[in-house]
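Example 437.
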Amino acid sequence: MTTSVSAYRGTVLHFLADPGESDDPHAVQLFEDGLLVIEQGRVKAAGPAQQLLSSLPKGAELMDYSDCVLMPGFIDTHIHYPQVDVIASYGSQLLDWLERYAYPAEQRFADASHAREAADFFLTELLRNGTTTALVFASVHALSVEMFFEQAAARNLRMIAGKVLMDRNCPEGLRDTAEGGQRESAELIEKWHGRGRLGYAITPRFAGTSTELQLELAGQLARDHPGTHIHSHMSENTDEIAWIRQLYPWSRSYLDVYERFGLLRERAVYAHCIHLDDEERGRFAQSGAAASACPTSNLFLGSGLFDFDASLAAGMRVGMGTDVGGGTSYSMLRTLSEAYKVAQLKRQRLSPWRAFYLATLGGARALRLDGEIGNFAPGKEADFVVLRLASTPMLERRMRAASTFAEKLFALMMLGDDRAVAATYILGAPGYRRQGA
Ligand code: GUN
Ligand code: ZN
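Predicted structure in complex with zinc ion:
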């Protein structure tokens, strides 16, 4: 007899809430000998293997991942696919880096075949790193969004992306107009938003590259399409912040600019949010918007240190972002490792429990997709990652020295990378399998 049920045996870890520093069982579900049961692309159950094995239907497929941790797929809440070729570009901070590296690279996305090839590479790289959902900047070219969504749809991925809006302070080849950008965005929403697992994000690059009219029209689009996301950058770099103050002399703060134009709302996600004060954090949290913390980018570009404690204490939704190509890795493990170090520099502690929460359910909450993805609650879409604990000689040795699972998880977070990803599953089907795994 055949059945559509498959089961995966290993250490199963997922989250029900923000665990803070502890492994509070109200927030953390950990089954060291666990079973993840999938039916028709959705989670049927997650629990102790001993309990669930006997309830499997006859003919169910059983995979043994007994030296691995099964977790919900990672969620990258901020990344730029047209920056695949400028990752690790030397010697500058944000505004100079944009001019010298990011903008020239993005101009190439006027070309469909380049965009298609880059999207293919980019999505393959996400899957190789265990990331199953991302909120993605395309370029200013509508075609770059088309190419991205085509590639994402072909892989059955839950992805959110949008055409960049930028109508000033950028090279001519990357400039749209307020009305043209609005029209193209509306057409892309019509064609792609809600098609399969795809969602659209209205994407003004940042306040520095849009006129007030463009931000106003973006806000209008966001009101007309409340189910879409808004995706932008905020408060990343101190020179940037001073420049925004000059461009918008009437504003009290950077946040004020987006708020004025109706761009601070549920499903709005702002990358960085480093240099906010407590009053801004409170307003941000109230609005229902989310911050994407991007530690590898913030360190690489010398932008500053995200305040995890203050942001979470203020009630802000927070997810993790790689921000490739300002960021230096597609790996959520590398990203969490740098996040830990950022927290250390702020005299804060980022526990492995909270870190993996932020990379999974926290990200889903930031994107307001926690009804669909983010943990192994029954009925959720079965996007998950299989992480090998001992993926390198160093990790193998460190794991042998560890006496608790918490210790192992922390070592995985600090020392792991793409080599730890044994497999990535999309809707219960293999989307990537590491050779030899
Ligand atoms: N702010 C505006 N554009 C960008 C970008 O491409 N990367 C980063 N890190 N910050 C930005
Ligand atoms: Zn960015």
